[in-house]
Amino acid sequence: MHIQLDDPVDLDAFRGHARQLLAAGVSPDRVAWCGDRAGEGAGDLFGASDGAAPPAAAVAGARHAVPASFIALCGDVILHRDPQRFALLYRLLWRLAHEPALRHDPLDADMMQAQLMAKAVHRDIHKMRAFVRFTRVMGDDGLERHVAWFEPDHHIVEANAPFFARRFAQMRWAILTPERCVEWDGQALAFGEGADRREKPPPDAGEALWLTYYEHIFNPARLKVAMMRREMPRRYWHNLPEAALIQPLTDAAEARSQSMIDAPPTPARRIRAPIALHVRPADGVAPADLAELRAAAHACRDCPIGALATQAVCGEGPLAAQHMLVGEQPGDQEDLAGRPFVGPAGQLLDRAMAQLGWARDTVYLANAVKHFKYELRGKRRIHKTAAQREADACAHWLDSEISLVKPQGLVALGATAARALLGRPVAVQAERGAWLHERRDGRPVFVTLHPSALLRLADNERAEAYARWLDDLERARRFEVGPAAVAG
């Protein structure tokens, strides 16, 4: 009996034919199966039909129960390229129906063969996900698409397509293979006939960037050639752009490893030991000068930050400065140096002030929070925003600093500083660029962004934001004593 499947990966069609044959008592040796892709089953020994499958009505009353695991196994095995997979699955179905003990036999040859075929399919699905490389092309409609060429070992395109639709849902893409192609337009998947390898798009700029990245992350000291070839078999190399780099990098690995061994050691970046605590002044006694303020702030343990930081970082600059610029808290470099605004944000502030002709030594630079709050990631200390309770614990140190320095105007860099100076939550974007007269001591407060906010912006947004921030700083710089000047 000759069974022709229109789609060689249609599990439902195979199950329908298999149920009818099993119910009619047609043994596996009387059935030949074939599909229609790439001539599957053509020239088969059983290619000539010696009968037809019985009508469904003739077998409607017959039912056979099989384990649920066998249905899942069929779903995997049917994706295998072996043209005899249908015969194997029907033979297993027949035997499960007539040999109940088969389901408990882990060493049965047919069952082991099916499981090996399922494993091969799963491996091929994994390799497709790992080794598909998209190239950006412009379509005839003027829209951008990403196209990839892949040569799977088995019939996995339909089974794997939903993964790529979820993974790359926001872009239009197509994966071309010799037997089956799939395209995603952002809404639905569409399948088509196979393509020719000559339809593979040429390299784009992204490929050159990927090769540069791959070359720079190659670590010769951790090279394991046998494992690499097991995980990235050579049959995939001709479709991988980075494969051209593998042999040269492998050949040079030993020499590069030796050069790394011979190189002088890099000085370790060590976090300084915490500075010893000084005797803290009695509660309620204000520091007499900035030196006493620094010692007292360093000994402060009103919140947990102080115990973890290297030292307290108070401000620096001239007394009676016209402006006091107040940031959020010291960062990693400020904590180690004991000075405010010496890290990346401080360097950006220095650059802006230099453009405005505003000398750093004419202003007093400080922070609302005096200790560095961070979390460890390996050996790196990553900045964490101080909680409101922690900022409140530092508020009296900032008030003491203002009383000692006696600035004429206060510039709040960021929301934490603005809240500390004004005593209320501040929407920086809404209130920036203006002098606010809300403090009891009469000192006006000017609100703008903290320079670290600019460093976190995307490259295409940074230039415009920086120009607007410069305008804010220039408006703050022009501040002069007197209500008329402030009102203007």
From TrEMBL:
It holds the Pfam family UDG. Keywords: 4Fe-4S, DNA damage, DNA repair, Hydrolase, Iron, Iron-sulfur, Metal-binding. The keyword Ubl conjugation does not apply. GO terms for biological process: DNA repair. Residues 314-474 form the Uracil-DNA glycosylase-like domain. GO terms for molecular function: 4 iron, 4 sulfur cluster binding; deaminated base DNA N-glycosylase activity; metal ion binding. It comes from the Bacteria. NCBIfam families: SAM_7_link_chp, UDG_fam_dom. Belongs to the uracil-DNA glycosylase (UDG) superfamily. Type 4 (UDGa) family. This is Type-4 uracil-DNA glycosylase. The lineage of its organism: Bacteria, Pseudomonadati, Pseudomonadota, Betaproteobacteria, Burkholderiales.
